[in-house]
Amino acid sequence: MFAKCGSVRKVRCGQLLALLLLGLAAGATLARASFAAELPPLPQVSSPRLYVFDCGTLINNKPEDYNLKREEVKDTNMGVTCYLVIHPKGLLIYDTGLSDRLVGRPLYENVVDGYGQIKFNTLIGQLADIGVRPVDIDYLVLSHYHWDHIGNANEFAGAMWLVYKGDHDQMFSKEARAYAWFNQYSALEKSRTTVLKGDRDVFGDGTVVILATPGHTEGHCSLLVRLKNTGPVVLSGDLYHYAEERGLNRLPEEEKAMGTVESRQKIDELLQRTGAKLWIGHSMDFFRTVRKSPAWYD
Ligand SMILES: [Zn+2]
């Protein structure tokens, strides 16, 4: 269209060009503004609020690894859940799931140890949907260091990392540094870090308590969250994988002498004492039916 601009219409063409450039600039500004406006305000709460995120699904058909027969397990696949607690005194994330980088990749690329990883949503995007940026997170807690729980941990390296020595040492061992997924949590090495001993009441009011449940790994932990309306819940981590492990009293062979038996007993006593519900994050039944972010439990 510019080629057709003759001398008589030069002014009009110049104006048109200026308007077009102005329009483009305004459009770019608007795009930036609307992107920023898409982030809702950070939720303000007067009592703890718990969000559950879809952090992927593992396609797995080997319940034998957990000492269960296939006919004993209703669904052998596993949901992958991440959780955010918004407490009046701060934000805590518990587990960071499968890596956001898996989204959109072909399935054949995403097979680890025989587990197919499926991921449609990013954790970072789900947090943004509720107005939370990684820099807003005050505390990072990983139930343990296995690859389906640490996928996006580097994003939260600015938070205070609460971790048990056994897991910390393992994560930064010479052997672990050679693992493909080391780069997903490597930045935590420089994070502000609190090394835990025993259970830890994070905010000092008993509403968010890290529970030492060693066994699956040496520094494995579960999380007790006391909610005003929902009541207390315990987020299992990998203390259990399938719900059927509870009724049938099964556990992986290698965990029998590692502390899992004692940790399960400790949690059972806590459930009985407090009336808390146990949320098994990998259970497909739980994963399908739990209310996910942007909804919440309070
Ligand atoms: Zn797991």
Strand-helix topology:
Elements lengths: L9 H29 L10 E11 L18 E10 L2 E5 L16 E2 L2 E4 L4 H7 L9 E3 L18 E5 H7 L2 H4 L15 E4 L3 E2 L6 E5 L8 E7 L3 E5 L8 H5 L11 H15 L2 E3 L4 H6 L9
Parallel strand pairs: 3-6, 6-7, 7-8, 12-13
Antiparallel strand pairs: 1-2, 1-5, 2-3, 4-5, 9-10, 10-11, 11-12
Zinc ion binds next to loops.
Could you explain the architecture of this structure?
The termini are far apart. This protein is α/β, with parallel strands linked by helices and 298 residues long. The protein is globular. Strand 9 and strand 10 (208-212) form a beta hairpin. Mean pLDDT is 90; it is low at 1-14 and 16-33. The protein has helices at residues 10-38, 123-129, 165-171, 174-177, 244-248, 260-274, 284-289, and strands at residues 49-59, 78-87, 90-94, 111-112, 115-118, 139-141, 160-164, 193-196, 200-201, 208-212, 221-227, 231-235, 277-279. The strands form two sheets. Strands 4-5-1-2-3-6-7-8 form an eight-stranded mixed beta sheet. Strands 9-10-11-12-13 form a five-stranded mixed beta sheet, with helices on one face. The site of zinc ion has 5 residues, from loops.
Going across the biggest sheet, name each strand in turn.
4-5-1-2-3-6-7-8
How much helix is in the residues? 10-25%
| Count of separate structural domains | 2
CATH architecture of the largest domain: 4-Layer Sandwich
**What fold name goes in the CATH topology slot of the largest domain?**
Metallo-beta-lactamase, Chain A
Which CATH C-level class of the largest domain is it?
Answer: Alpha Beta
Derived structural class: alpha/beta
- Tell me the overall shape: globular
Number of strands: 13
Spans of at least 5 consecutive residues whose pLDDT stays below 50 are: 1-14, 16-33
